[in-house]
Amino acid sequence: MRKIVVCLSVLLAAISARAQVTFPVNGVTDKRGGAYAFTNVTLVQDANTTIKNATLVIENGKIAAINPKQVPANAIVVDCKDKYIYPSFIDLYTSYGIPEQERRAGGFQFGAPQQLDNDTKGAYGWNKAIKSYIDAFAIFSKDAAKAEQLRNAGFGTVLTHQADGIVRGTGVVVTLTDESDNAAIVKERASAHYSFSKGTSTQSYPSSMMGSISLLRQTYIDAAWYKNNPGSKEGTNLALQSFNNIQDLPQIFEANDKWDAIRADRVGDEAGVQYIIRAGGNEYQRIKEVAATKAKFIVGLNFPDAQDVEDPQNARFVSLGDLKAWELAPSNPASFEKNNIDFCLTASGLQNPNTFLANLRKAIQYGLSEKAALNALTANPAKLIGISDKVGSLEVGKLANFIITSEPVFNDKAVILQNWVSGVKYGVKEDAWTPSAGVYNLVLNRMTGASKYALEVKANNVANVIGTDTLPAKLSVAFKSVSLSFSEKKAPRGGRGGAAPVAAASLRLSGVDNGNGYWQGTGVDTLGNPFTWTAILTGNEVAKTADSSKAKSLNIISQVTYPFGAYGTTDLPKQETILIKNATVWTSESAGILESTDVLLKNGKIAAIGKGLSDPSAKIIDGTGKHLSAGIIDEHSHIATSSINEGSHSMTSEARIGDNLNPDDINIYRQLSGGVTTSHILHGSANTIGGQTQLIKLRWGATDDALKFAGADPFIKFALGENVKRTTSTNNIRFPDTRMGVEQVLMDAFQRASDYQDAIKAASAGTKKGGSVNPFTKVRRDLSLDALVEIMNSQRFITCHSYVQSEITYTMRVAEKFGFKVNTFTHILEGYKVADKMKVHGSNASTFSDWWGYKAEVQDAISQNASIMHKVGLNVAINSDDAEMARRLNQEAAKSIKHNMSKEDALKMVTINPAKMLHVDGKVGSIKVGKDADVVLWSHEPTSIYAKALTTIVDGTIYFDREKDNELRAAIAKERNALILKMLAEKRGGANVTAARPTFNVINECGDHEHNHGILDAHEEN
Amino acid sequence: MNVATMSIIMVSWMHMKKTNCSDYPKQHFMKKILLTISFLAAIGWAGAQDNIYPAPAQANPIYIIGGTVHVGNGTVLEKAIVQIENGKIVRVGKDIPVPKTANVQVVNADGQHVYPGLILASTDLGLREISGSVRGTNDYRELGDLNPNVRAIAAYNTESEFINPLRTYGILLANVIPQGSLVMGTSSVVQLDAYNFEDAAYLADNGMHISLPSFIQRRGRRGGFGGPSAGNSNPAEAAQERINVIKKYFNDARSYFTETVHPNGKNLKLEAARPLFDKKQKLFVHANEVKQMLVAIDFVKQYGFDVVIVGGTESWQIADLLKANNIAVILNNTHNLPTMEDDDVDQPYKTPAVLQKAGVLFALNDNHVNSRYKNLPFNAGTAAAYGLSREEALSAITLNAAKILGVQDKTGSIEAGKDANIVISKGDILDMDGNVVTDAFIQGRKIVLESKQEQLADKYKHKYNVK
């Protein structure tokens, strides 16, 4: 045979091209060169270069030549006719060969035991989640089973790291060889890795997204300071030292979500780092913002499976957002390509890499180009981590890392036949090397002479033998073995005499597939006589069917909406000129309540108030019989965030709600339906000095940044009493455990802040010429003290969760000692007891209308609280602290009418009063010319239980409108139904389905009290 | 007594309360309180909450005149008269002569609104005090799966600080229920003006309460489904197993009742089911999901029980089935968020109207712990804003509740022959700006509309000299 038989070699027998030089030899030395020439192949060198009828020569694990004039004599020739060779794939996001870390449940829980210190032994930093000192190359050891899985999916080289912690140390590039660990390593310290997840760290801090972000920011600061201040009191800090050492590497951040990607990029921007970001699969939902990060991405292909929505009651709990994501997720890679974002692909996230190629083809079907797909698996990743000299394309001198496929690799039916890693062959699906399908000349060399048949092979186990009759045969072709049996004659159909049909005896053949359509072996006839046989492919191959993936029409139902899910819209609502005619206008100003009055909204502002107004460009809203008020302002809310409570330490003033806004929270829309236009999003109440708050406007559909109330003064949450002394914990170890201790936490914090401020001043005044000096080269910049310094300088303001009179009083006294005011006491349920003191101090009060009794410190809470404080002369607001109640804040305010407050004053408690305490009364909170056009049109007096918000307008943009709402409801029902039918069709078509997964309402709560949040509430005190 | 003295006593009382540290024997402390109270009582001051006396039995005829009477059954009578004697409503109407004898008490409700006392249809009032942080004050949830013999009334604390404020919102009766797992025990209707639970009992042991397991696949903490912490990888199967525990209990009880002698002795748990099988009690099934409610319907079919669903979040989806099976619903918290983000944003607000339209007998309930059930009338008001008529909304917290709880012959409406459980409000009792209760009567007894809340308010208004 001139053809060289490939493939029979078993893996273990593969030639070792890289035996280590220094290693002692047990037995007889066996050094070989391992030269191969792959001929007649379609060689895809990279996404742009394909050579037909090429010859690829490899030797010593590397590519020795492409299309040489002569095939080297020593090379074993592999005929690759009709085959394709591609550079093998590179996966930048794996933990291949890294020991698994044991996981523990994370998240913040009131009452759970705390771990305040890092219990890792060694001279590391204070936080266990900063594992900058981990080097993957030092703990890597190949894993034959995982290597095989990845190779079978087409991968040859991976970047692997220990995916544990917020700073995760360095990654190592390895090949998926089964040879030694020494041979596998391509590049040590190839990358540095990060995430927002503290992973297996058992330490309490951080317990939230905000905390993770803060820890990372502080670590950048600390590392720089550590570098500048050798010999400081810090001593040796290996975590900071390593952190500095890994900064020059490609920086890879595991974000796993569209908003987290954007958050990570912001952290990077501040630190002067451009991360490469591991995407989460939902980036297509905000691809413009994702593109704006300018980051390169590592994109997974773990598309959601269809769910079993057969049972309508199970289907009911699957949200439209999840249904849409199921349909649109395969378009994620294509949307990266269309938006010109550099990206790589990864198999990570898949339950098993064996679905990688199928999902990749799906992504191609959803618009990803084959060229981009190949680049994303070869050249792009190689370039990103600086290994283009070794892998990523097939060029002379690079590693002999390639795959051989039966067809162009992205075709539906393409099969990876072999995966060569560093010049060593690993079989993937070798049986498919020679397609068995076709017509063979079958010759049986029997004693009676040669019997000839045509053997028609349709697949490896389907064949007919055609002699005088066409007879079905039993065929098996596997692992190069062939077995075939058939009867010489048709089974009798029952004789004339009515005899029963008899199963015809069969000829039984066994043999070997010698490759390229040549089978031979031995057989036994019905009488037990042996014979030999051959079967030779005549070349009449069955015509290939058209590649089906490209032919399928997609029939996509969903569109990307903002937000992505129910009540989102494909186009965001726009600012309009609006004239509300003839309404009863509750101005929340000294003008009082104006009957039959027009209000003109223009350019996002209130342009005019009066009678008989007109504007030809205006959209007219008839306000006859209706009431117009300023938008409701909620001084205390926890909606629209990813996390709310960095509850680990007693002081977490570095944490910032604004770092983790979640503009997709349905509660934004729900609250618009209750007339809310501005919300003050507070950190939770698990610690005395909580995190920095964020004032937002309820711009439904906007991005996280666009929710922010521009130009508003920054605030911070403080808390006192039972929560901060961890009353519900039976094993508290965190100071303070009493209200006495709480006072001292405050004293200590501001004393430290005061000293810190002095130190900064001293360090700034360092030069003789009076030039400015960055004090933080000497003084360790402390993000938590920064916030306190701002408070002392009246650049940041406190809203303080408080219940009983003692703590309220001493907090004011501490503030006075340090020269500032407590801007707002929130909750303040005993405010009526110290209203006079608060007035003297100058605090505002933001309270509940009628909550009480849910814990010991609220036993003296009374419904008259707001009205008494109001009568004493405090500026009083009613807040929600609850996603449900926020929809009815007008009702809550009106409850004070029962206690002798006027309707007008009651409404002010949710409009101008909170605006004043938030220092935004110049912009919102009342209906006054020049203020923001944030207004609500009500069906009844806004202080009535019967009042419904009909239209809610923010910045002159209609974000909620009852009619539009009805249209959206109908559209949601229609789209849900269509997607459910499509999912059912997928199930009936035999696709994998998982059990229906209810979409829980994850509602962040401060953990202070109970809430009515429905039966799918998965509330998280995080 | 002048105001200054009142403050001094109040302060001393407050002082004692605050010094109640853990090593100070509670009984001793209580004695001190009681001494103080008796001292205060002796000088005729109704200051501290503990000293708000339950009203004595009605001695003289009472005529409420001039008010708009909301009967509770949908009827509204303008400028009507309600005649009350011996704790009962004698007559309601326009042409009722008011005798001019000295003993007759006339309550002028001119321009005001007269309502039946509101009924809190399912509550832990009197069983749950400082829920969040003091375990010892909580008696609402018993251990174990099968507690049919547990009786909520036994732990009902008439001194609970949450009772008196409710009366100032018009709530005069409550159905106090036990909670727990599966078969939870019996509830009792109480009137909210009593010295002890036996006085308070209005209809003892009116119903047996069971709670059904969820059919919803729960997720483990931090995302993932089906992990070891999720515990219900096949929720339908797990739920059915739990439901079978309940059914086995009822089957065993039914079989037990056929025994003439009990070879295993008298079984308190099984005995507890007798009133249910005798149709002297209703079965209150706590259920929010459709699948749970379908199981409740199955209870009707299998045992012939008179079934009431408590919770009913998703009942709007099967209102016609509930009607067809004659199942009533106590709907918790109109003021709630929708189940799904896809749902109509006002679904919980309009669910009552769906039930009304289908003809389902339903009551509205408030079990919102943080505000302690004060907002029952406003939950009904919201239902009125979203599809119920105001009188229908009123019925949902009066007559309908009475029917569901089995006390409609005694209360729930202002009709002759019923107990005089009546509230007079300055305005619309369902609206925040109208709910100002000026008078209230329980069984014809004019009750004191005071509470610790009012007392604390008075104290500090006095301090600041404000009204």
Automatic annotation (TrEMBL), chain A:
Where is the secretion signal located?
Answer: 1-19
The Amidohydrolase-related domain, residue ranges: 355-419, 629-946
Please give the CDD domains that the UniProt record associates with this protein: Met_dep_hydrolase_C
Q: Which domain of life is it from?
A: Bacteria
List the SUPFAM superfamilies hit by this protein, alphabetically.
Answer: Composite domain of metallo-dependent hydrolases (SSF51338), Metallo-dependent hydrolases (SSF51556)
Keywords (alphabetical) are: Signal
Which Pfam families does the record associate with it?
Answer: Amidohydro_1 (PF01979)
Name by which UniProt lists this protein: Amidohydrolase family protein
